[in-house]
Design brief:
Blueprint: E1 9-12, H1 17-28, E2 33-37, E3 51-54, H2 62-76, E4 80-83, H3 86-94, H4 96-100, E5 104-105, H5 110-117, H6 119-128, E6 136-137, H7 145-152, E7 156-159, E8 177-179, H8 182-192, E9 200-203, E10 208-217, E11 220-233, E12 236-243, H9 247-259, E13 264-272, E14 279-285, H10 292-297, H11 302-312, E15 326-328, H12 330-341, H13 355-363, E16 370-372, H14 381-407
Helix pairs in contact: 1-11, 12-13
Amino acid sequence: MNSDRQVDVLVAGADTRPGLAVARSLAAHGLSVLAVGEEPNMALRSRHIEHALLAPSPRAEPEAYIASVLQAVEQLGIKLIIPTTDSTLLAVDRYRAELEDHTKLAIARSESLEKVVDKRANLRLAKQLGVPCPKQFDLESPDQIPEMIDALGFPIVLKPPGPGTYPGMPSFSFKVLYARDERELRGYIDEHCADGSYPLFQECASGVVHNLCCFAARGELVAIHEYHSLRRLRGVGVTREVVEPIEVAERSAREMLKAVEWDGVAHVAFFVGEDQKKLWYMETNGRIWASVQGSVHAGWDFPYWIYRYFVHGEVPEPEPIRIGSRTCWHRGDLESFLSFLRGGEIPATGTDPTRLQAFGQYLSGFGPRTHSDVFRLSDPIPAVVDHWRLFGRLTGLRRRATGRSHNSR
């Protein structure tokens, strides 16, 4: 990590897809980048990145993580820290005072961040603004379960009220659960709520997920586009297309970001009915989205906007984005296809393909119209490492299965 000159930006969470996209974007603009991550992959393997640092886990060891980051900031004279994951965002916010004595932080104010991270408070705010939300029940005792069932009906959705690493927030071991009947609901409550802490309980909103990628300056929305997921892996879009945001979703996102006086990037998600008239607000995420490379490829360089805004105070003035631009996370697309072959979910929602047709859908991700999230001919190692991790996991599963088979003989 030795350097003869000042390093411009520290990218926290650089061992992830968004971290890689941010690091590459900044490097393309001639900025010097320190890529910080827990594992030596993604941006830490990119030939375009001059400096890399392996650090402790920001989730499990936030104090040690920040100590490592702070040492790098002081040693390299770093101008800006950009967190790219929830865990790095929360760690940086938690130690904001110590870090801001030495550098700038590409995050919104703590007061704004709290209104986004705390899902209960965020949903209350949405309702106050008139933004349509799924029906919700605040369970305080198992005695209220029959009342909750009458209010929400089945299936009932269970979600954590926020990240367990956030101060005062209960920790849950799941991202989302669907209770289809009372027996399943009570089973989830018995398993996950033994300490008396309860997650969010909501009605199951139907429709299509609409993802809005935003940039706000002091609460004013200055850029917004939407993307549709053409294929998915466990709910995450792996092949996506940039589209114009529908009016009702854009209006709601604008109201939410203004109410929390947001600064910087945000990812706002909705469920929208097929007629595009019925809408349910899902959540706001206060960090860069996993598919930010799709935004950059379509002409909106959010990572560079972040740098110019938080270092120089320049508000983005974006040119029209390229509607119809497509990007693909090839490793995720491959994993989704392999999962389908084993009886998993259909990658392309709304279709019912044969195996051969699903293979054709997967191959379409390599078409000339589709840009890769990770692979670049001039910088192939991050994509090789990404696919190698999938190969290692699959072969690891096979070894364990083989071991069990041998032991049973």
